[in-house]
Every structure is written in structure tokens, then in C-alpha cells.
Write a structure and sequence with these properties.
The protein has two domains: about 1-125 and about 275-355, Quinone Oxidoreductase, Chain A, domain 1, CATH 3.90.180.10; about 135-270, NAD(P)-binding Rossmann-like Domain (Rossmann fold). Helix content is about 30%, strand content about 25%. The protein is built from eleven helices and 17 strands. The protein has helices at about 45-50, 120-125, 125-140, 160-170, 185-190, 205-210, 225-235, 270-275, 280-295, 315-325, 355; strands at about 1-10, 20, 30-40, 55-60, 65-75, 85-90, 100-105, 110, 150-155, 175-180, 195-200, 215-220, 235-245, 265, 305-310, 330-335, 345-350. Helix 3 crosses helix 4 (about 160-170) and helix 3 packs across helix 9. Bound molecules: NADP nicotinamide-adenine-dinucleotide phosphate (NAP). NADP nicotinamide-adenine-dinucleotide phosphate binds next to helix 1, helix 3 and helix 4.
Length: about 375
């Protein structure tokens, strides 16, 4: 099968940082699906795993933890899927990734692909959606049925992959969503996704919060730098409020800053359930099925900004490079396989593809 892989960990400008390879098809375990991958998306986990280091792999390592495709075969113990089913999933960071024509994945981590979306559109959802959903509902404990209606949620980093879906999920749950974006285009993006208020994360947040009448907020979901926002989060969280972060801290963080307010702090790591084979890991498949229903009911909009095609090393290097710029809006997805013996070529979709897919709340540029 075709795949995109690495053996050395190199800067993304190096053509050897990701290369096109031929690999044997993976063998599914009894609880696995073997999926024919039709589209993938790129996340910061790819660039972090690929980051330059001295290590050399003895066999090619396939990255990619977001895919949409078709079930080719099922293991003996699989119950929820059969060959031919269209699926989407993030998978397990401890196993080979999705940048390959076929991938083996635990069925419990897999959802049925939204029927109304193309493979390319669907591939932009799983990793960020699971992160956003688990952050809001499993860690912060927000009530999906409106029990926190009107309470305030500050989302730091609203226009990125995770923020783009978190804004929509929080609005569906009735929260007042205050988010951050620093550029006119990212500001427009978050407003179009439903954010109530937008702050500029290049400027101090407390005076901006005070100016909109939310000097303190009930909940904070920080999808950017934990170290950089730690003090300000402690300052603006309301007494007994809750904070979730998803980016590992580089410096020690001072939990004492939260003590006088009895504020709670949570980590969210999307791969915890698969990495530790937790008994409840099937919740990830359930979450993806629930989100597919919300997408098909037009309650959630796709979050992809750009679609590259086909899936090849050159396009994945472009996608990594863009993601490393820190200026990505929504998701970058890569779709379809090249024909053997042909040039790879590449096509770039427009940011406005979100508008084409679902028109009612879409950014126009
Ligand atoms: N723990 C987990 O399970 C998990 C899962 C997914 C992601 N992550 C991590 O979460 C982070 C975000 O992931 P992502 O996919 O959402 O990234 P992304 O799509 O690359 O995020 C890009 C966004 O970050 C915003 N941004 C840049 N500088 C910022 C700043 N100083 N403060 C606030 N926002 C800023 C930008 O907004 P502007 O353009 O408006 O400046 C841009 O829209 C990454 O570090 C990733 O590794 C963790």
C-alpha cells in the first residue's frame, strides 16, 4: 500500500522529513477494523511527533491521527461495523497513523461518518472534536442539555482546530462563549461559528473581559499555551470555577494560585482513553456518532479551512509547514490517493469551502 512516512526527524523544509513509501497492509487484531483511508487531516500532534531529533527509525513510521474512510475488513470480535461502512476516527497515537492507504484501528474508537459530508470534510473532525467534547463535557463537566445555560466560558484560541468545534459545542449547550482571536480573518471565523464575544489574545485579557462585563468567567478552556495564560486564568476564573488545558506546560505551574478561589484544574489529553485502554474508551466512538448526527442535522458546521489533494509526502509537508506557522484557521485536510506512476500534483481548496458545505453560518472568506 502507499503511505507517507518518516525514518528521520527533520525540519519540515527538508524533502526527507516526510517521504512516499510502499508498505505492507496492516493486519487487523480481533477488535480492529481495517479501514481504506480516503482522507486525513493534520494536527499539531503530527508536527510535535515529527519535530527534529537525533533518533532514527529502523522501519518507516507513519503519522496521522485523523481519518475518514471505508471499512475494508473487520476482526473476529468486531460488533458495531461491517465491510463497506463509512467511518471517521482519530485512533491511537501509540499505533501507526492514518497517512496510509489502509489502517488498523480499534472499533471502539471509531464513529460512523456523517452522511452529509465528503470524506475530506469528515476527516477534519475526529481529533479536535474528541478533544473539545472531552474538555467541555468530560472534564469541565458542562451539561449538554442546557444546565449551564447563560454561564460564561472563555475559550483561549478559538479559531484553531480545537477552538472551532468547541465554540459550536458550547453554544449548543447554551453557554455564553467568549473567545480569543488576533486577526481580522480569525475574528470573523469565530463570530461566524457562533462566539458571543471576541477578545484579542495579543492584548491583555483582564481589561478586555472587564470592558464586556465579564471581569470573571465561570469556565475556561485554554487551547493554547498553558504557561503563558496560567496567571491570567487564575486572575479571571470566578471563585469555584473550572479550568481545562490541553497543552503541556514547559515550566512548573503554581497550583496555589487557584487555592483561595477553590478553582478546579483539569487536563484533557485526547489519547488517554486509547493509550491506557480505559474501560470507557468506547465513549470516543459514541461521541463521534453523536457529533455525526449533529452535523447531519446541520447543528454543527464543518471546520476545515483548506483541502489539499492528493495524499502524498509533498502535500503533507505543506500541511505540516502551514500548521507550524501557528496561523491556521480551522482544519487542513488532505484527500484522495495519487495513481502510481503519475506526478502527485496538488490542489488547494478555498477557505470558503466551509460556506459551500453548510451555508447558514459560514465564513465567507
Ligand atoms: N491534549 C490534547 O488532547 C490535544 C488535542 C488537540 C490539540 N492539542 C494541542 O492544542 C493546541 C491547539 O491545537 P489546534 O489544533 O487547535 O491548533 P491550531 O489549529 O494550530 O491553532 C491555531 C490557532 O491558534 C491561535 N493562536 C496563536 N497564537 C495564540 C496565542 N498566543 N493565544 C491564543 N491563541 C493563539 C491562532 O489564532 P489567531 O490566528 O487568531 O492568532 C490560530 O487560529 C496545540 O498545541 C495542540 O498540540 C492538544
Amino acid at each position: 500500500m502507499k503511505a507517507v512516512a518518516l525514518t528521520r526527524y527533520l525540519p519540515i523544509g527538508d524533502p526527507q522529513s516526510l517521504v512516499d513509501v510502499e508498505l505492507p497492509r496492516p493486519e487487523p487484531k480481533p477488535s480492529d477494523l481495517l479501514v481504506r483511508v480516503e482522507a486525513v487531516s493534520v494536527n499539531p500532534v503530527d508536527t510535535k511527533v515529527r519535530a527534529p531529533k537525533d533518533k532514527v527509525e529502523t522501519s518507516p513510521r507513519v503519522l496521522g491521527w485523523d481519518a475518514a474512510g471505508v471499512v475494508e475488513a473487520v476482526g473476529a470480535d468486531v460488533r458495531r461495523f461491517q465491510p463497506g461502512d463509512e467511518v471517521y476516527y482519530a485512533g491511537d497515537v501509540t499505533r501507526a497513523g492514518s497517512n496510509a492507504q489502509f489502517q488498523a484501528v480499534d472499533e471502539l474508537l471509531v464513529g460512523h461518518k456523517p452522511k452529509s459530508l465528503s470524506f475530506a470534510e469528515a476527516a477534519g473532525f475526529p481529533l479536535t472534536t474528541l478533544t473539545a467534547w472531552e474538555s467541555l463535557f468530560d472534564r469541565l463537566g458542562l451539561d449538554r442539555q442546557g444546565g449551564n445555560r447563560g454561564q460564561s466560558l472563555l475559550i483561549i484560541g478559538g479559531a484553531g482546530g480545537v477552538g472551532s468545534i468547541a465554540i459550536q459545542l458550547a453554544k449548543l449547550a447554551g453557554l455564553t462563549v467568549i473567545t480569543t482571536a488576533s486577526r481580522p480573518e480569525s475574528r470573523k471565523w469565530v463570530l461566524d461559528l457562533g462566539a458571543d464575544q471576541v477578545l484579542d489574545h495579543r492584548q491583555p485579557l483582564p481589561p478586555q473581559l472587564a470592558a464586556i462585563g465579564h471581569a470573571e468567567v465561570d469556565f475556561i478552556a485554554n487551547f493554547n499555551n498553558t504557561d503563558a495564560y496560567w496567571k491570567v486564568m487564575a486572575e479571571v476564573i470566578r471563585p469555584q470555577g473550572r479550568i481545562v488545558c490541553i497543552v503541556e506546560n514547559a515550566q512548573p505551574i503554581d497550583l496555589n494560585l487557584l487555592k483561595s478561589k477553590s478553582a478546579a484544574f483539569f487536563w484533557e489529553f485526547m489519547f488517554t482513553r486509547s493509550m491506557f485502554q480505559t474501560a470507557d474508551r468506547g465513549r470516543q466512538g459514541d461521541i463521534l456518532d453523536q457529533v455525526a448526527a449533529l452535523v447531519d442535522e446541520r447543528k454543527i458546521n464543518p471546520t476545515h479551512g483548506e483541502i489539499f489533494s492528493p495524499i502524498c509526502a509533498e502535500n503533507l509537508r505543506r500541511a505540516h509547514q502551514q500548521l507550524e506557522s501557528g496561523k491556521t484557521i480551522g482544519k487542513i485536510t488532505v484527500s484522495g490517493w495519487y495513481e502510481s506512476g503519475r506526478g502527485f500534483g496538488s490542489a488547494q481548496g478555498a477557505l470558503g469551502s466551509l460556506k459551500k458545505a453548510h451555508s447558514q453560518k459560514a465564513p465567507s472568506s
